[in-house]
Amino acid sequence: MRIKGDIIRTVRKQKKLSQVTLAAGICTQGTVSNIENKNVCDSLEILDAICKRLNLSLESVLDDNDEKKLTSLLNQVEELCNTFEHKKAHSLLKETSINVADFQNKELEVRWFYFMGITNLLGYNNTTDSLFYFYRADELGDSNSIYAILSVNSLGIVYEMADELDKAQVYYEKSIDMLKKMTIKMPIEATKVFFNTAKFYSLIKDYAAAFDLSSQGIALNKTYQSLYMLDLLAYEAAFNEFMKSPNLKAPDFNSAKVFAAFNDNQNLLAVIANDEKTLTR
């Protein structure tokens, strides 16, 4: 994809970062050099990580108008999905006239397929279409594509919803294994993978695994100094710690309540209130 490399170079220098420092944990110094001097980048994940390190929006450095428009659209879709407005997000995807297949940017296509899959699944319970989109994302994505990993994780959700738990476990485990093999810094979106998989292991009563996965999601938030899904992760950690620890008299939901109140997550606060009445020894 074409990049406005001069913007990245200017902001990097303003922040007094070398190319090596900017690249650390994300990519090679040569990749940063290509972005700045040749105005090209083959990886949307790498470019997004660099922009986040420089406090730049991804849209501000993309040089292709259609790619800009699609990236902006997918950002809106992601925000809607994060607030469980999957039907509204699906409508946005269906209304666009942009043809994602026209792009050379495979990662943008992977992201598109993931959101088409997740909005079909959670917005309309359409497992047939969602399976198609998730499998396509998995096929197109590489080892560092977080949306390919999320698609594999979402295949676990599909099979869990169908009560095919053995199949679900295969895909949940595969998504976690894919995260471990990433050669770039793990993006904050990986939080969803940890949370979804933790919920599954809690469902099958492997509380130790669920607690460990929740804790990894919380640790990832600390890395980014983020609150991304932290209320849900804190709840899962507290619940599963209680379930795996017979010596605990009651779960400690204090952190989960603070984050849920901050996010105005009334549904979670109601769940916690009920658990505090019933989960005692």
Automatic annotation (TrEMBL):
It comes from the Bacteria. SUPFAM superfamilies: lambda repressor-like DNA-binding domains, TPR-like. Residues 8-61 form the HTH cro/C1-type domain. GO terms for molecular function: DNA binding. This is HTH cro/C1-type domain-containing protein. It comes from Enterococcus haemoperoxidus ATCC BAA-382. The lineage of its organism: Bacteria, Bacillati, Bacillota, Bacilli, Lactobacillales.
